[in-house]
Amino acid sequence: MAMLGGAALLAVMALTVVSVTGRALSPLGLRPVPGDYELVEVGAAFAIAAFLPWCQHQRGHVTVDIALARAGARVNAWVDALANLLMTLAAALIAWRMGAGLADRLGSSFYVETTFILQFPVWWGYAAALSGAAVFALVCGWTVTRSLREARS
């Protein structure tokens, strides 16, 4: 997921460079990329959602451990397990609501909401972000079991 997110982020960066260059050189006949804001929005949403599972797996989220600096390794392990459980609940909530948003966007057979310029369906962005959110929830669940094993040992 992180590799896909990185590829999406590189594509968004390249698109931005091309579009800004087109705006700057418009007197020479170049043009910005139509719908660049829409594409950046969807690409960035996917990239962010795609990076979350790897960050959780690598224990890369920000922690404040001033209060636990003097506690033993066992106490810290149990606190990590609790924190991972809370993150799992938050990730599951995010995935659930993202799924509900996707279902809402897909619910009407008479009207499909589209973006303003490119006219692609808005649900594509929800589907892209939901894929990362679902994997994030699964990885969070795995980190709970990892933390519980560490706390017991």
Summarize this structure as a short list of keywords or feature phrases:
mainly alpha, single chain, 153 residues
How many DSSP-defined strands? 0
CA radius of gyration: 20 Å
Percent helix: over 70%
- Percent strand equals under 5%
Q: What number of structural domains do the residues give?
A: 1
Broad shape = elongated
Individual helix count: 4
Instruction: Encode the helix/strand succession as letters.
Output: HHHH
Terminal CA distance reads 31 Å
Which structural class do the helices and strands define? mainly alpha
Low-confidence stretches: none
Largest sheet: none
Residue-averaged pLDDT: 93
Describe this structure in words.
With 153 residues, the chain is mainly α. The protein has one domain. The chain contains 4 helices and no strands. Helix 2 (36-57) packs parallel to helix 4. The model has no long low-confidence stretch (mean pLDDT 93).
How would you briefly describe this protein structure?
With 153 residues, the chain is mainly alpha-helical. The chain is 71% helix and 0% strand.
Which secondary structure elements does this structure contain, and how are they paired or packed?
Blueprint: H1 2-24, H2 36-57, H3 73-106, H4 123-152
Helix pairs in contact: 1-2, 2-4, 3-4
